[in-house]
Write a structure and sequence with these properties.
single chain, alpha+beta, globular
């Protein structure tokens, strides 16, 4: 069965596209968790190294799941208020290049805020063991490719967090994603078409 997709375009100019992407991904996350499925992937048709773009796409072999997802209250409300423009469900073009959009949690460990949280946790653990905490700086030469950060609001534990996403070309089509619609470094190998319009 061939894959299909629909896109959501954020209409306001100068809007926070990462915030809107996070809300859309949050809707997908709730949708897939409720149905215990992992076969809908997320693509960003206007992704560049510098900008995420004002569009998000949802891709799946399951057209009825895409239709149900497109009818979620948040999407319909935003479309009604002329803040989103939703496309019809369309077949994926056969010539679209295939990519993996990978949720790479190791990228978060390189950010200053995460380093600070990890140091504070190490200090608390050392003090709980009755030891003195002596931070050690270990310089690393890590080359990182371009990535984007998307804030997500967690409904289950009320802790907000950030998805760190990077894009990698791939030659194979895979349809298993994590519950946010992305590939991961290990378990989930899902790929999506790069729907550049």
């Amino acid at each position: 069965m061939s894959r299909a997709y629909f896109t959501i375009t954020y209409l306001p100019t100068n809007c926070d596209v990462t915030l809107l992407a996070g809300r859309c991904i949050g809707i997908l996350h709730g949708f897939m968790n409720k149905r215990s499925c992992n076969h809908i992937g997320v693509s960003f048709p206007k992704w560049t190294d510098k900008h995420l773009g004002n569009q998000i796409a949802f891709v799946s072999k399951d057209r009825s799941a895409l239709k149900n997802l497109s009818q979620q209250n948040y999407f319909e409300m935003m479309a009604h208020d002329k803040l989103f423009e939703m496309s019809d469900i369309k077949p994926v073009p056969v010539d679209a290049p295939e990519v993996q959009i990978i949720r790479d949690q190791s990228l978060g460990k390189l950010c200053m805020g995460e380093k600070r949280r990890r140091m504070e946790r190490a200090k608390r653990r050392a003090e709980a063991r009755g030891e003195e905490y002596i931070p050690q700086y270990v310089p690393t030469d890590t080359e990182i490719s371009a990535f984007h950060k998307i804030p997500i609001a967690s409904k289950s534990n009320q802790n907000d967090f950030v998805l760190h996403l990077r894009l990698e070309p791939t030659d194979s089509i895979q349809n298993t994603f994590n519950s946010y619609g992305f590939a991961t470094n290990k378990e989930h190998t899902g790929s999506v078409p790069l729907l550049a319009f």
